[in-house]
Design brief:
mainly alpha; Arc Repressor Mutant, subunit A; globular
């Protein structure tokens, strides 16, 4: 799954804030929830338009980007 299959950046959607593809939910919301010690399931319960697969793939993509040798 390519990055543009996961996230949409469109000036007509929340002023260009990165959102989960097919939703109006900012990706940052996921990280805010996790940072505040909420679980992924709690986030998904609050934002039912984000599928579990989509949220996990975004997290996986972020992890891969942060841990790849090129990122260090």
């Amino acid at each position: 799954m390519a990055a543009d299959d996961l996230v949409t950046i469109d000036p007509d959607i929340l002023g260009g804030t990165p959102v989960f593809k097919g939703t109006r939910v900012p990706v940052k919301s996921l990280f805010d929830y996790l940072e505040d010690n909420y679980t992924l399931d709690e986030f998904l319960s609050c934002f039912p338009s984000v599928t579990p697969e989509l949220a996990r793939r975004v997290l996986d993509r972020c992890e891969a980007g942060l841990l790849s040798p090129a990122a260090i």
